[in-house]
DNA sequence: ATATAAAAAGACAAAATTGTCTTTTATCTT
DNA sequence: AAGATAAAAGACAATTTTGTCTTTTTATAT
C-alpha cells in the first residue's frame, strides 16, 4: 500500500519510545508493554528481539526480567531503530525500483528522490528517543490509540 | 519492509513515464509496454486499469487499441499517480500508526513527521511526467533495469 | 460474417507480512 | 530442589501484496 515504515517498524518505534520513557534502570516485561501499547505480545516479542540483537536493547530472562534500552535514550536515534527493523532499503533504493540506480546510470527521478530521501534520513537521524519521550511527557502526547504518557512514570 | 511506494505504484510510475515519453497521439498496447518494461503483462494491466479509472489514462479496445495518457504529460504529476494507486495513506497517516493523530492530540513525532511528509508530497506534486520523460530522453536515462529512453521515439 | 487484436474482468496461486500459539531456556524465589 | 517468571525459539495461521491464467467484451480488418 505504500507506507514508509512497516508495521513491525512502527511497533518497534512505539515500544522503544515506551522503554526510553521508562528509563534504563529496570527491565520492563514485554507482556506489560504489549498490554499498555495494545500490540500483540508474541509479535512484539519478535520485533524486540531484532532490536536486542542489533544492540539497541538488552534483555534479561526470569523474574524481574524484561527489556530495556542499552544506552540512555538520548543516544538512540529513530534511524537506528528503523534500520534495525526495516533495513536501509528505504534509504538507499531507487524510487522506480531499478536495481543499481545511481550516479553512473540514474533513472530520471534519481536526483529529486535522493533529496527527498535525505530529508527522511535526516529527520530520523537527528531525532532521539529521549527527545520524543521528553516531549511526550511534557505535553502528555499520545503513545497509544487512546492513552498518553501520563502514567509512564 | 518499508518502501514508501508499493510495487504496484512503482510499476505504475514506470509505465506512465513510458506512455508520457510516447506522447498521447496513439494508443500503446499494454503487451508491448510489459515487454519493454519487463513487468508482468497481467499485473500491469490491472495497475493501468486503476490509472484509467482515475482518469489519468484512457484505453481503447481492439486492433490499434491500447492505453495513452489523457492529458499531455506535462499536466500529470507523480502525486496523481501515487494517490491513484497507493491512496493518500502515506501522505496523511501518523508515523507511529496512531489513528486520528493530528493537531488536537498528536503523537510526539507528529510535527517532525508532518514536515518530512510535506517534503515528499511537494516533490511528488511538482514533478511531472513530462519533465521526467524530457530529462530521460535528453540523457538517455534508465527506465528499465538495463535499457534507457533511446528507442522510445 | 469471420477472424484477429486488445482491454476488462475475474478466478486462482505464490510470496511476503502480520499475527497466534506452544515449547524451550534462563533466572529468580522459596 | 521445586515452582514461578519471563525471554527465546520455532511452528503454524491469517491477511495482504504480488503475480498468473482464463474467459469475456469491444473494436478492427479481411
Mean pLDDT of chain A: 94
Pairing-aware structural class of the strands and helices of chain A? Answer: mainly alpha
Give the overall silhouette of chain A.
elongated
Q: Specify which chain pair forms the largest interface.
A: A-B, 50 and 50 residues
What is the tally of beta strands of chain A? 2
List the uncertain runs of chain A: none
Question: Which range best describes the helical content of chain A: under 10%, 10-25%, 25-40%, 40-55%, 55-70% or over 70%?
Answer: 40-55%
The radius of gyration computed from the alpha-carbon positions of chain A, rounded to a whole number of angstroms, is: 17 Å
In whole angstroms, the N-to-C terminal distance of chain A is: 37 Å
N-to-C series of helices and strands of chain A: HHHEEHHHH
Mind describing the biggest β-sheet of chain A?
2 strands, antiparallel
Placed side by side, the strands forming the largest sheet of chain A appear as: 1-2
Number of helices of chain A: 7
Q: Oligomerization state of this entry?
A: homodimer
Strand residues, percent of chain A:
5-15%
Amino acid at each position: 500500500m505504500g507506507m514508509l515504515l512497516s508495521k513491525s517498524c512502527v511497533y518497534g518505534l512505539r515500544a522503544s519510545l515506551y522503554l526510553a520513557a521508562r528509563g534504563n534502570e529496570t527491565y520492563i516485561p514485554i507482556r506489560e508493554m504489549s498490554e499498555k501499547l495494545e500490540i500483540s505480545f508474541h509479535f512484539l516479542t519478535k520485533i524486540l528481539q531484532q532490536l536486542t540483537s542489533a544492540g539497541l536493547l538488552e534483555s534479561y530472562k526470569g523474574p524481574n526480567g524484561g527489556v530495556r534500552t542499552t544506552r540512555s535514550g538520548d543516544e538512540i536515534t529513530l534511524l537506528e531503530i528503523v534500520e534495525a527493523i526495516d533495513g536501509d532499503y528505504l534509504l538507499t533504493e531507487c524510487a522506480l525500483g531499478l536495481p543499481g540506480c545511481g550516479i553512473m546510470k540514474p533513472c530520471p527521478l534519481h536526483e529529486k528522490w535522493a533529496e527527498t530521501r535525505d530529508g527522511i534520513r535526516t529527520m530520523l537521524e537527528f531525532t532521539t528517543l529521549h527527545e520524543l519521550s521528553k516531549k511526550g511527557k511534557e505535553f502528555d502526547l499520545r503513545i497509544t490509540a487512546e492513552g498518553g504518557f501520563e502514567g509512564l512514570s
